[in-house]
Specification:
Order of helices and strands of chain B: HHHHHHHHHEHEEHEE
Number of helices of chain A: 9
Helix content of chain B: 55-70%
Low-confidence stretches of chain B: 373-383
Distance between the termini of chain A: 52 Å
Helix content of chain A: 40-55%
Oligomer: heterodimer
Radius of gyration of chain A: 17 Å
Strand content of chain B: 5-15%
Largest sheet of chain A: 6 strands, parallel
Number of helices of chain B: 11
Largest sheet of chain B: 5 strands, mixed
Structural class of chain B: alpha+beta
Mean pLDDT of chain B: 84
Number of domains of chain B: 2
């Protein structure tokens, strides 16, 4: 049984997520709170689903970083800026999911993260790919062609199995690509990616020449 | 700034006249006429400055008029002073003219009239001096030379100042525009946040699970929640449905109301900016997406699908993905419904369809079309 915590300042959203996960026999929601500080013993939880905008009027990136040091964090957020999404992954979040995602994606994401995996939602794949492509103009390729291709298919809504079929590789190979993409996001080039994502978010040209 | 420079130089010029009248010129037998000339110069200067204040600068016409007055003053003044007095304060039109010629540098934007005016001043001076003193023309040349320098230098300085001022103005305008844009974005973000926090989260929660028993009602709430999310994420231009993004969103909403939950996603710009997609290409893609979603409803055995659209260099791609039944591409006869009309629709705009499916593994329909008008094949000839 997976012990799950929920952090969201919106009571209706909290209740909704709890209901979705409550339908999953493998999940038990043991804490549902408005603030990270109210979580009872984060270390004892398998996964914490954490909102990115917790009434502070800024993305809770520092809080996510702190929490990610103690437990596995799946960021669940709604309208979010690409830069904020990348920043929270760079801060150690093990996945990112939009609040309007289908119920089964919630369960899948929680399972993936609980198993120490990285949940690359289609939305996150789109953001990472755009940022990497923008950064490529300046920095040279940040992802291999195959990694970028995998990102592209995942962004279009394909499962890892569908992506693998489309690329003519094994599903485990796609899993490996996703792991590598996470490593690239949380190490080394992250500053560049975040910078470019911010540029994208502000509607400016991501091309430094433009 | 120009006006201040004009007023200052003109005051200095008139000061020369005042000094002349209170010292050297007093001995002149024609003192009354000298005072009259000085009064005319004063009146003309005041008029010039007043005009400049009103117009925010010295107009070329005013500059030309002022030039004529300056020349006339030289001629008149020369005729008032006896020969020997021409190199004393009695000939006050000379120092006055030197300083007053600054106005010429301010009045004209091009160099040619400034040069011509300066040369004119020098010439008038030489002739006046010669006629008054009777000395050879070349005696007056050194003094006349001064006229050649002043107006051009003033002209050059004024030009540099104007250029700097224009740059400063442009910079300030840019800053203002940016600030306005920033404020608008900020306001939009605030509204979006309010809408999101107070309405959207509740609607999205209601749209999932079993809070609403009636499936039809749940689908309506889901469709409206999708619309509000679109509004929150895209701002006021979300109302526009004429571009491909808006049309796909409207299609998704329509299907959601009827029970197929369609998620539409675009990458951030530039990938998610469909401004470059021609109308007929958008129409073809939309019709094909329509059909692909209908196929999901009919054959996939699931009630959800996702649509992704992106502009990639010179092509636009719309992908419809479901995680449903799928089919065996080797045994299912290509043709009926799925491929034929999809391919025909896309072929009209030079596009292609790629379908990927496997029993139990879902289906992916990828529609691609060139963004620029289809051109005849210019690739290398096939051997």
């Amino acid at each position: 049984m997976l012990r799950v915590g929920i952090v969201d300042d919106h009571p209706v959203a909290r209740r909704g997520i709890a209901a979705v996960l409550g339908d999953d026999p493998d999940c038990e929601v043991v804490a549902s709170v408005a603030r990270i500080a109210d979580l009872p013993g984060p270390e004892s939880l398998d996964v914490v689903l954490c909102d990115l905008y917790l009434s502070e009027g800024r993305p809770a990136v520092p809080e996510v970083r702190e929490l990610a040091a103690r437990t596995r964090v799946l960021v669940v957020s709604a309208a979010s800026q690409p830069a904020d999404v990348l920043a929270c992954v760079a801060a150690g979040a093990a996945g990112y999911l939009t609040k309007d995602s289908e119920d089964d994606l919630f369960a899948e994401a929680v399972r993936t993260v609980a198993a120490d995996g990285f949940y690359l939602s289609p939305h996150l794949a789109d953001v990472v790919r755009s940022a990497a492509q923008a950064a490529e103009n300046r920095e040279g390729p940040l992802l291999t062609a195959r990694e970028e291709e995998a990102l592209g298919w995942i962004a279009k809504g394909m499962t890892h199995a569908q992506t693998a079929r489309r690329m003519g590789v094994a599903t485990s190979t796609v899993d490996t690509y996703v792991k590598r993409i996470r490593a690239r996001l949380s190490l080394g080039n992250k500053a560049e990616l975040v910078w470019f994502a911010r540029n994208l978010a502000e509607g400016g040209s991501a091309d430094p020449r433009g | 700034m120009e006006v201040v420079a004009l007023a200052a130089t003109r005051t200095a010029a008139l000061l020369n006249v005042a000094v002349a009248l209170t010292t050297g010129a007093r001995q002149s037998q024609l003192f009354g006429l000298a005072v009259l000339l000085a009064s005319v110069l004063l009146a003309e200067s005041v008029t010039l400055v007043a005009l400049a204040v009103r117009a925010g600068g010295v107009s070329p016409a005013a500059g030309a008029a002022d030039l004529c007055v300056g020349w006339a003053a030289l001629v008149c003044n020369a005729s008032l002073v006896p020969g020997s007095d021409v190199h004393t304060w009695g000939f006050f039109a000379y120092p006055y003219g030197l300083v007053a010629s600054c106005a010429t540098g301010l009045a004209f934007r091009r160099f040619a009239p400034v040069a011509a005016a300066s040369a004119g001043y020098a010439l008038v001076y030489v002739v006046s001096d010669h006629s008054a003193s009777g000395q050879p023309l070349w005696n007056a040349v050194p003094n006349a030379g001064s006229f050649l320098g002043i107006a051009p230098v003033v002209w050059w300085v004024a030009r540099q100042l104007r250029r700097l001022a224009a740059e400063l103005d442009a910079e300030r305008a840019r800053g203002l525009a940016l600030a306005r844009q920033e404020a608008a974005l900020h306001e939009r973000a605030r509204h979006a946040r309010l809408l999101h926090d107070r309405v959207l989260q509740t609607m999205e929660t209601l749209a999932r699970g079993s809070w609403i028993q009636d499936a039809w009602m749940r689908n309506q709430v889901r469709a409206e929640a999708g619309w509000v999310r679109w509004l929150v994420e895209n701002g006021p231009q979300a109302e526009r449905v004429e571009d491909l993004g808006g049309a796909l969103r409207a299609l998704a909403q329509e299907r959601t109301r009827r029970g197929l939950r369609v998620t539409v996603r675009f990458p951030p710009p530039p990938g998610g900016d469909f401004g470059s997609v021609p109308g007929e290409v958008a129409d073809a893609l939309l019709a094909a997406a329509h059909e692909a979603l209908t196929n999901v409803s009919k054959h996939a055995g699931v009630d959800r699908a996702s649509v992704h659209a992106t502009v990639e260099e010179d092509a636009v791609a719309v992908t419809v993905v479901d995680h449903g039944n799928g089919f065996d591409q080797a045994t299912t006869p290509a043709g009926i419904g799925i491929t034929q009309s999809l391919r025909a629709r896309l072929a009209e705009v030079g596009g292609t369809v790629r379908i990927e499916s496997q029993p139990g593994g879902g289906t992916c329909v990828e529609l691609r079309a060139p963004v620029r008008a289809a051109t005849p094949d210019t690739g290398p000839p096939v051997p």
